[in-house]
User: What shape does this take?
Amino acid sequence: MKKGLNWKRVLTRIGIAIGILIGLTIVFVTAFVVVLGPKVSVTTQADTVLAPEMVPPGIETTVAFVNVNVIPMDSDRLLEGQIVIIKNGSIAEMGSGSSVDIPVDALKVDGQGKFLMPGLSDMHVHLFNSENDLLLYLANGVTTIRDVGGPPIRLQWRDEISAGTRPGPNLLVRSPLIQQLNWFNGITYTWASSGGIRTANTPEEAEKLVAEFKAQGYDGIKAPHGIFNSMDVYRIILASARKHGLPIDGHAPIPLSYGKDKTRCWNEFRNLGVEAVAHTEELIKIVDWSDKSIRKTARDVADDGLWVTTTIALIQSILTQRYNLEDELAKMPEVKYVNPAILKRGVAWLDIKDGWVPGLNKYEADPDSSKEEVLEGISSYIQALGKMFVALHEEGALLMSGTDTNVPLMVPGFSLHNELEAMVDLGISPYDALRTSTYNPALYLNSLNEFGTIEAGKRADLVLLQANPLEDITNTRLIEGVMVRGRWYTRADLDTMLDKIAEANQEVSEE
Ligand SMILES: [Zn+2]
Assistant: This one.
């Protein structure tokens, strides 16, 4: 018999080989997505979500704060012996003793010796997928937050909160971060972030994305970010956002950060017409740190009406995180409220560090680096930042409080009090620090008719304190109760929320 190739058999074997290859690829990709996905994802699946019945509903009725000291935050003043009536989610009436009638059906809250101030705002938060964080803000008197970039699910949370079906602070949502990435990184980043990062490499793509975000209902654009190398794309994002009437907020573009010719970089940045930066740090990246230059920059920022979100406490914590992480975490009892998925985000063996704990914290010291050099570098960075903040304040620049929550050591809600204290430690008055968290965010959002001060007609977003924060800023932590859109949470309600979250986190951590 003539021996030849059995083509049928060869083809079958090739078929089987291809089949196995495809099969392995599917298995590998699935394993990668399932196992690694949640660990590297910037929108980490929440490890703990409290069931609705675990969350105290608060009280929604007519409320009268009786004989309370009001800190209205419209100017540096205190109104003693006030009656404040809340009806249908708004401040209905406010006045001294005899001038205001208390409705018979009102729930009376005794304000004797207590202080009522507007709810606080954290204008730079990252919710990731941690739904319980919304409760942490409430428990800390933070009644307005701005997520600086999230996937569309966040829009649903925002709408549920405003419809009253989900407990939480008033939520603003910036679009997903627009990044300039190659096709591979573009796909993996978009996937790993569940759509929280999107790619635009050309001006056309950028324009299309901004239009898409507008149609989806985002409150603004999170853009130009650090990885941006092309100023064309940066400029087109700014122009498109303007065209759609969307505010834009973000980082200074890479080509203008840490440039050699600081004067040119700063002038070019000013000419872009950016209306807000996400951190005080952005300014430090562009200009030099001489007293003269810091002063001039602060004056320019004030003249230009450029808004600056503070995020001072985070930068101040970097040195401690680098050399004393474990001790510092041990000193923070509020860490138990942080979603365990966020604490442990990252994959150590791949050197992906997005978590808080040792081994997964990106701020931790690299053992090979020289301690003296790094110490000096970070110390002078922190010092320059402090000087910049004070100069901005003195020059009358527009500042709003923000903390970059869920970045290591920034515990949602709690970090806002650290931020206010950091401002006062740098030498500004408690009243001015509180302005950055009440009146100013409302001014920035063109919403002073809605919130930011205590006045009849405004939304009832309020915090009742045991002691006067104008005398000592740490008194903002002494919370007796929080009201958001007229819903009143007593201290007991807030403690229940916190305890349930800590319990649920503890259970997950022990698994
Ligand atoms: Zn951030």
Summary: The pocket of zinc ion is lined by residues 124, 126, 148, 404 (CB under 6 Å).
